[in-house]
Design goal:
mainly beta; 7 helices; 117 strands; 40% strand
């Protein structure tokens, strides 16, 4: 090396030395470098991680920011890692830190955490150990590979701090649960090494730290306020720091100095052990300091040579854990995974035996290979209500049913490859997989079916649909060829068995069952197991139903899912929120697998790699092209609906045509080309099918139900059922106009032929005169004709499709029940009775010919190709013959007695051939396009609409009569060439009491008897309205009676039987609710209103009069004396008032003159004056609509045909849009504001204010409709007035706190000098005197008796709650037992007091919890918060720092109240109703309140799970309460 090069190299060395020296000096000055005397402190707050050099305490730096709720902190010095836990984010994270800069955050643990309170790093093997106070587990994870394992899960109550000693393979942790303690174990989690080393003189053990040099453990007790030291075995205990601690939390040691955080002083303190103190304050932190460590290499010294787990992970495939016994380590597997058989080092890659649990919005998997049974949530998306789950052992996919999204989905075991397999039209409930035939089965409690499909979702088919009521669980035995299911219908609960194709159905059990839920099978021993959610039992039997036995009946509240694996039965309990298991043979050996896990529903147990078994479908799907079903003795191939099995009995083919038939409550399908291919369509709620039609191009079936009085439709496979028309009378003929997209029907009862759009809208009567029981109907859209038979005239008639030109076509044909049109041969055929025959004729009625006559009762008829098919009502036989001469007669099917309709559906039909008049854009018509002869068409309007001059659009009538039946609304219009009555297309209407109509917005209003409300919905003839789309106008009415609408003033008036007033609301925004009229002895009932004269008329049951007033209730005038009025109306044109009373109808003019009797002769109700006539509902059961003309005196009343069972009538008149009150905006727009001529009235301010009864408080005191509540409901923390005035500012402290027993108000229990009533909801940390009164802790043993029985001053109470006495746990227990013994000897009263004290002690032992997870520990400027009222279930208490003298007196009590948080209840109350404290609230029908919940998630079973989403429980660690802080502390 040359001299020059040596000089250059030496220069570089000198430069590097200088750089290092400068860096060290810089770090020393900045406080980042630790020396023996000046260690670097690493500590956490709620928002960040900070470091501070004790030599530069003025310089504290936050090295990691953005924490949500920082908790524990530790470091791995060798790899420059800082790690911490975040309780709100539920994470353990790490970040690189090399004294100058930080790296990116690394997620180490992100699943299975709830409240990670303590962490400790094993620097030998790079692992993190942590405690979780909510999951009650101690776990470990490798930082690099993220292998995680649960070490301890039993007898871990509220584990807090944790520390490890790698050199000895030991770990230590504190636990401040019900039995406070400090424990030690091996770092490998070996239960044999676990030992309690401190259990006496311990209360709230918090921080813990290790002196590695001297093998000592230091720990702090936040309640007893000391620091003690022990050796690793728990011996040689001595007190290190005896006083001066306020609320110590975390603890660290370095070179004989202790450092700890204090949550009350918000400081970091230190203590020199060598000099025995004193306590020094190092750092004042804001936010409050939480955990603390000394960041120094000497705290993590690594041996220079070999040590356990250093070399090649000691051959362990996953985890190498240090152990206190030779050889110093053990190989371990991640949680849920076990070691391979015969190996001590190699683990399986995943669990082999698993449980899958559906939990509505999540699915969890639980390994059965490890005893901790730790659940892991699968990362699945968009789960709404997952009810059941199954597993395909062949592909290892999870399948689950979601009842809310109506889907069946699948995913891998790790949650990947998620996809929807099946979209259901119903609600898939329980699922079961046949892994051999690759078929999935599911039950549907909405359509009441059992359906199958291939696992990819194809080849769907309903296999069972009849006599199912509420099918629930389903289970399969693929090798035996059986399936089992439960049906929990309350009237007919049962368990059944059938072959896998649905044949061979067998009822197993129908007695001693109530809610049979889960089903499980032992396919090895052929055993059947089921659970009943109502009898609270698990039972078993043989698979043929024999040898039934009760297996288990202890502590089962609401069993839902049931599954079997190996020797164990597993089940979920919805109310207990547990998953348990028992021995499947004995019912014993019960073990809790999971406790307190919410929303557990279906469960599936399986073992990976388990044999699928074999059956006849195993090899090549049995040769079947689609579905293969194994059966006990054979197997069958089957096809999805729409395909038919070919002649080879294995291949599915699409038929050219098939037959659709109806009989009684069944619609089915029959093959024309292939035998044994009949199927029943899975259509729910068929009562009596009276007519059937097929829309081939639309792939829809239409049918009428004579019992339901409706016309319905569904897809051709039976799915997607919907009701399109209601209240149709007796429809016995249906036909589809494929050209105009219309449906035609005959109504035998009303003697009409009507038409509507295919969705039921634009309904219109085409022929309503001259018909005699019209029956079957067929259409010829290409020629514009319709044909129908009449049973009364025994002829066949023809008319244009708009109803014109009706004439008899073929006469004397007998009673024709079925017609069929032969479009190819232009012929019409019919099946007739009297005599029984099948005959045909040309479409012009000529060339009449008899085809078949030797048949008993031909009732159904159809034509396909050159064959005619007919069904016989009596014999149930379907036959066919030649359409030309009836020859070549052949039997097609049998066993279909009472067949009512038969239709051939051809694949190539396409809905019609040739040109169609209305096929293009509905002919341009706005509503109906009706084909006519000669290739013409006509636009038509819905009933009572008028065709405009453009002959395309329609206009709605302005004046007509509306009538209401209980479940339907109709209209009457007197006009030429128009059917006078028609039903408005509104479905789903129920419990109508009276009606009103707003012609401006086209809204129908009705009083609903069932919901005690007034509702409204838009109606029109052009579209079908649904009552479920209605909006509530007024709710919560007390016995609503009658109403009337002010159309011009946009206001609604109503009366109720309980209020004796006339009330009003604006219909524009449902505001300005108030009272228009109220008076002494007044009892207004029926209402009427004159729109233009602005007069309100009512009948008064209290005064016995007919009254009139202005629209605002002023200027009252008696028109007539009348008692027991049953109906009232006002004639808008003539200005007369009509009312019904005592079998008479009376009238009087609006000025009170000209009183007269209009009609007499019977009871009358619901009057309406329209078109110069008076209409009303007659008396008797029929309540038929009656009519009498007003211009003729003594004219007889005549019934209006076809309209009966009326509940209301209403005359609708043309709106006077020129009136000054039109629009409701005049005079402020309030109800009653705009009077006659546009003058302004006093609106809602006119009525006298009603006084509340004594001891009642008036809500809305400034208004006339003041609502009254009991005085003791005021200022009780629960809003009872609609405007909240009972909990307003006048309540003072009661508005934000609670009411004390002496009537005073306070923000917290500590401020109540006499305690507070706590019957509705218990107060945290309160001493309960009895079931009503609670005391603050400061009132115990204060020398004054507060409890009625004196238990607050009893010796037992005072012997325990001495404020200055510190006792150990053991001695405290001894004192308590002695006190309880004395109390038991004294009598039952003191025994009750002892029980109360035990409850208090458990609450008092509980350390204070930290702040809510989403909030910093100590906000400097907290937002103003209002405490929740005591009457509600509270998760948090708000404690406020007192600033006044009176508040200061109770500050300590308040602090004690804030200082403790009760542990979250394991099983929360089942419903808010349990918290009402007996106070009656909103009306609830007894049937709704007493009906037991069904055993499925669709129920409202209050105990079945916790609310969704559930509020997170507070973390189990103490919270600061600094006396100097002005902050509001939330617990």
């Amino acid at each position: 090396m040359t001299k020059r090069r040596r000089i250059v190299q030496a220069d570089k060395i000198i430069q590097n030395v200088v750089h290092v020296f400068c860096l060290l000096m810089f770090l020393q000055l900045k406080g980042y470098y630790s020396t023996t005397n000046n260690p670097v402190l690493l500590y956490s707050t709620s928002t960040d991680i900070r470091i501070a050099n004790t030599s530069k305490l003025g310089k504290v730096n936050a090295i990691i920011k953005g924490l949500e709720q920082g908790s524990a902190v530790d470091f791995l010095y060798r790899k420059n890692l800082i790690c911490w836990s975040d309780q709100t984010a539920e994470l353990i994270q790490c970040m690189e830190y090399n004294n100058t800069h930080t790296g990116d955050k690394q997620r180490i643990v992100s699943e299975g955490l709830i409240t990670p309170t303590g962490i400790a790093i094993d620097w030998y093997t790079d692992k993190i150990y942590w405690t979780d106070g909510e999951t009650n587990r101690i776990e470990v994870i490798s930082i690099e590979h993220k292998y995680k394992k649960v070490l301890f899960w039993s007898e871990v109550d509220l584990a807090r701090a944790i520390a490890v000693v790698p050199k000895d393979g030991l770990m230590f942790w504190t636990d401040w649960g019900e039995i406070p303690k400090i424990e030690r174990s091996g770092m490998n989690g070996d239960p044999s090494t676990r030992k309690v080393i401190v259990k006496e003189n311990i209360f709230w053990p918090n921080g813990i730290t290790v002196d590695y040099t001297n093998n000592l453990i230091y720990w702090v007790d936040a309640k007893l306020q000391f620091v003690d030291v022990i050796d690793f075995n728990g011996g040689n205990r001595r007190r290190v720091v005896k006083g001066g601690l306020e609320y110590p939390y975390a603890l660290a040691i370095f070179n004989d100095k202790l450092y700890w955080t204090d949550w009350k002083t918000w400081e970091i303190h230190t203590w020199d052990i060598s000099t025995n103190g004193p306590i020094k304050n190092l750092i004042k932190s804001d936010p409050v300091p939480v955990d603390i460590k000394v960041y120094d290499e000497s705290r993590q010294m690594v041996p220079p040579g070999d040590y356990p787990c250093k070399n090649n992970n000691e051959g362990c495939s996953h985890l190498c854990l240090l152990a206190p016994t030779a050889p110093g380590y053990v190989c371990a597997c991640p949680t849920g995974v076990k070691l391979k058989e015969g190996s001590n080092t190699t683990c399986y890659n995943s669990p082999q035996s698993l449980l899958l649990v559906a939990q509505r919005s999540t699915i969890s998997k639980i390994s059965l290979d490890s005893p901790d049974f730790t659940p892991y949530t699968l990362p699945l998306k968009d789960l709404k209500r997952a009810l059941t789950v199954d597993f395909d052992l062949k592909t290892e996919y999870i399948y689950w049913a979601d009842s809310l999204s109506k889907t069946i989905s699948k995913a891998r075991l790790d949650g990947s490859e998620q996809s929807v397999v099946i979209h259901s039209s119903g609600v898939p409930d329980s699922i079961a997989i046949d892994p051999i035939a690759r078929i999935i089965y599911w039950t549907d409690p909405v359509s009441d079916t059992i359906t199958v499909a291939k696992l990819d979702g194809s080849s769907r088919k309903v296999i069972i649909h009849d006599e199912l009521y509420d099918p629930r669980a389903i289970a399969l035995h693929p090798t035996a060829g059986w399936m089992f299911w439960s049906d929990w219908n309350e009237k007919k609960p049962k368990i059944e068995r059938a072959n896998l194709d649905g044949s061979g159905r067998m009822l197993l059990f129908s007695e001693k069952l109530t809610w049979p839920n889960g089903i499980a099978l032992d396919t090895v021993n052929n055993k059947l197991y089921w659970g009943d959610a109502r009898t609270h039992k698990i039972e078993a039997s043989n698979m043929d139903g024999s040898n039934r036995q009760e297996l288990h009946n202890s502590d089962i509240l609401h069993i839902f899912g049931l599954t079997l694996l190996g020797q164990h039965l597993y089940w979920t309990d919805m109310q207990r929120r547990t998953l348990d298991r028992i021995n499947k043979d004995t019912g014993g050996e019960r073990q809790a697998v999971v406790e307190q896990m919410a929303n557990m529903m279906g469960v599936k147990a399986f073992r990976l790699g388990e044999s699928l078994g074999w059956n006849r479908c195993s090899d090549n799907n049995g040769g079947c092209s689609h579905l293969c079903f194994n059966r006990p003795d054979d197997y069958v191939c089957s096809c999805p609906l729409g395909l038919e099995l070919g002649n080879d009995k294995k291949t599915c083919v699409e038929p050219e045509a098939f037959l659709i038939y109806s009989r009684k409550n069944v619609i089915g399908r029959i093959s024309i080309e292939n035998e044994n291919n009949d199927a029943i369509l899975p259509i729910k709620d068929l009562k009596e099918v009276s007519a059937l039609a097929v829309h081939v191009s639309g792939s829809k079936l239409y049918w009428s139900d004579s019992k339901m009085k409706s016309i319905n439709r569904c897809s051709i496979d039976g799915s997607n059922t919907e009701r399109i028309l209601e209240w149709t009378g007796l429809v016995e003929g249906l036909a589809i106009d494929w050209s105009g997209q219309n449906i035609y029907w005959t109504d035998t009862a009303a003697q009409r032929i009507e038409v509507a759009r295919l969705d039921g809208s634009s309904r219109r009567a085409l022929i309503w005169q001259g018909l005699k029981k019209p029956k079957s109907i067929v259409l010829d859209p290409r020629k514009g004709y319709m044909y129908w038979s009449e049973l009364g005239s025994k002829c066949i008639k023809r008319a244009a499709m708009d109803g014109s030109g009706a004439a008899a076509l073929v006469e004397q044909v007998g009673r024709v029940h079925a017609l069929a049109l032969d479009g190819e041969r232009r012929a019409l055929c019919w099946a007739a009775l009297d005599p029984s025959a099948i005959a045909c004729a040309r479409l012009d009625g000529t060339a009449r010919a008899l085809l078949v006559d030797n048949i008993p009762m031909p009732y159904a008829l159809t034509i396909y190709g050159d064959r005619i098919y007919w069904g016989d009502w009596n014999t149930g036989v379907i036959e066919s013959g030649s359409v030309r001469d009836g020859g070549s007669r052949a039997r097609v099917h049998g066993g279909l007695d009472y067949i009512s309709e038969l239709h051939a559906v051809a694949r190539a039909a396409g809905g019609g051939r040739g040109a169609a008049q209305c096929a293009a854009d509905n002919g341009g018509c706005a509503h109906l396009c009706l084909p006519l002869p000669n290739a013409d068409y006509r636009c038509a309007c819905p009933a009572h609409y008028r065709l405009n001059r453009d002959n395309i659009t329609c206009s709605e009538p302005e004046e007509y009569l509306l009538f209401a039946q209980k479940n339907s609304i109709g209209r009457i219009l007197v006009a030429n060439n128009e059917c006078y009555d028609s039903i408005i297309p509104l479905t789903g209407l129920k419990s109508v009491r009276t009606i009103e109509y707003d012609p401006i917005n086209k809204h129908l209003y009705w009083m609903d008897d069932e919901s005690h409300s007034i509702r409204r919905v838009g109606i029109t003839y052009s579209t079908t309205s649904v009552a479920t789309d209605s909006a509530t106008v007024v709710s919560g009415l007390s016995r609503p009676f009658h109403m009337v609408l002010d159309v011009l003033g946009r206001a609604l008036y109503w009366t109720c039987l309980d209020t004796d007033s006339i009330n009003a609301t604006s219909i524009e925004n449902n505001s300005s609710v108030g009272v228009i009229l109220r008076g002494e002895k007044m009892m207004p009932r029926y209402l009427a209103f004159h729109q233009t004269k602005r007069l309100l008329v009512w009948s008064d049951a209290g005064l016995g009069t007919i009254m009139r007033s202005s629209v605002d209730g002023t200027a009252r005038t008696e028109l007539a004396r009348a008692a027991n009025v049953t109906a009232l109306t006002v004639e808008q044109a003539g200005g007369a008032v009509y009312w019904a009373v005592a079998r008479q109808i009376h009238a009087v003019d609006l000025d009170g003159s000209n009183r007269r009797v209009v009609w007499q002769g019977g009871a009358a109700a619901s009057l309406a004056a329209y078109g110069g006539a008076l209409y009303w509902a007659g008396g008797g059961a029929e309540r038929a609509l009656m009519r009498v003309p007003l211009h003729r005196r003594d004219a007889p009343a005549s019934p209006v045909p076809h309209i009966a069972r009326l509940v209301a009538t209403l005359a609708v008149h043309k709106v006077s849009r020129e009136h000054p009150c039109y629009g409701g905006r005049a005079c402020g727009g309030a109800p009653g504001a705009c009077a006659a001529g546009g003058a302004c009235g006093c609106a809602l301010a006119c009525a006298p204010r009603a006084a509340c009864a004594p001891a009642h408080f008036p809500c809305h005191a400034e208004r006339a409709d003041a609502h009254c509540i009991p005085d003791n409901w005021r200022c009780d923390g629960q809003v009872d007035c609609p405007d909240g005035s009972d909990e307003g500012a006048a309540c003072g402290a009661c508005a934000g706190g609670l009411r004390c027993a002496d009537g005073e108000c306070a923000a917290a229990l500590g401020a109540c000098a006499a305690g507070a009533y706590c019957a509705a909801a218990p107060l945290p940390d309160a001493f309960r005197c009895d079931e009503r009164l609670c005391l603050a802790p400061r009132l115990l043993c204060d020398g004054h008796q507060h409890c009625e029985d004196g238990t607050d001053e009893a010796p037992a109470a005072c012997g325990y709650v001495q404020k200055d006495q510190v006792v150990g746990a053991a001695s405290g227990r001894a004192q308590l037992l002695a006190a309880l013994g004395a109390a038991a000897g004294a009598g039952a009263a003191l025994a009750a007091a002892g029980a109360a004290l035990r409850r208090y002690r458990r609450a008092a032992r509980r350390p204070p919890r930290p702040l809510p997870l989403a909030r910093p520990l100590a906000p400097l400027k907290p937002p103003p918060l209002r405490a929740r009222p005591v009457g509600h279930l509270n998760r948090f208490l708000i404690c406020r720092r007192r600033t006044t003298a009176s508040a200061s007196a109770s500050a300590s009590a308040s602090d004690s109240l804030c200082g403790r948080y009760p542990r979250p209840t394991a099983n929360p109350p089942p419903s808010p109703a349990t918290l009402s404290g007996g106070r009656r609230r909103a009306y609830r029908h007894y049937r709704a309140s007493n009906r037991p919940p069904p055993p499925t998630p669709a129920s409202t079973d209050a105990c079945e799970s916790e609310p969704e989403p559930a509020a997170r429980a507070p973390p189990p660690s103490p919270a600061p309460s600094p006396a100097h802080s002005p902050a509001l502390l939330l617990y």
